[in-house]
Amino acid sequence: MLAAGVRAIVPESAVFIRAKEQEKQRIAEGGEVLGTWAKTRVFLHETKEMLKKHWLLCIYAVLLMTGAYDLTRYFLDRFSDSIALLLFLMRQ
């Protein structure tokens, strides 16, 4: 529900609109319609090129998100232990 609401409120990006217009023009001119497999190959090729160029940034992002997850788990464990200790002490 939330995603549908956000999609209804937020407009499409200029890049998305331009890509849709180019696809419509290609179809109108009798060009080839790209199927799902062809679009997947294009996506994988662009992803490979992006990783070649920005590999260090990808490693940094993975390490940053791993650290954030570990910190979250650590503080969650510490917080639940503190609450359990507090409740135990309050009962006595």
Main sheet, how many strands, which sense, barrel? none
Strand content: under 5%
> Which parts are unreliable, with pLDDT below 50 for 5 consecutive residues or more?
none
* N-C termini distance: 47 Å
Average pLDDT, to the nearest integer? 88
Oligomer: single chain
Shape: elongated
Number of strands: 0
Instruction: Specify the helix fraction band.
Output: over 70%
Count up the helices. 4
The run of helices and strands is HHHH
Radius of gyration: 24 Å
Going by helix content, strand content and strand pairing, the class is mainly alpha
Q: Any idea how many domains?
A: 1
Question: How would you describe this protein?
Answer:
- This protein has helices spanning 2-9, 14-28, 36-53, 55-91.
- The chain has one domain.
- The chain is built from 4 helices and no strands.
- 85% of the residues lie in helices and 0% in strands.
- It has 92 residues and is mainly alpha-helical.
How is the topology of this model organized?
Elements: H1 2-9, H2 14-28, H3 36-53, H4 55-91
Summarize it.
The chain is an all-alpha fold and 92 residues long. Helix content is 85%, strand content 0%.
Kindly list the characteristics that best describe this protein.
single chain, 92 residues, mainly alpha, 4 helices, 0% strand, elongated
